[in-house]
Amino acid sequence: MTQNTKPEPAVGDWFITRRGEVLEVIAINDEAGTIEVQYYDGQVREYDLESWHMLSFMPVSPLDGGFLPPQDKHGHTRRAIPCSAGAKA
Question: Phi and psi dihedrals of 50, rounded to 5?
């Protein structure tokens, strides 16, 4: 038996993808089985549950009401710092 290690999303949760894309869960429709997210660049996208669980991402904490990915001196986005279990944002 395999264990599902993907975090179950909740509205307001923030995640970062392997490619460094930051997104926030903005709506969950249990009846339709969909999760709506907004990427940091403003793009809104809807995923069905199967697609959501296929994504490769990790949770991150928003900073001061909005997440700002760290950047290097050239303005390139660096890897975000993941949430620690039990940490408060």
Answer: -60, -45
**pTM higher than the cut 0.70:** no
Among left, alpha and beta (phi > 0; psi -120 to 50; other), residue 64 is left
How do the pLDDT tens digits run along the chain, 89 residues long? 444 456 678 999 998 888 888 899 999 999 999 999 999 888 999 999 999 988 888 888 875 445 555 555 555 554 444 444 444 44
* Gap between the Cα atoms of 42 and 22, Å rounded: 10
Candidates 60, 64, 66, 63; CA nearest to 82 is 60
| SS3 label, residue 84 | coil
Q: In what order do the strands lie in the sheet with 57-60?
A: 44-48, 34-39, 22-29, 14-17, 57-60
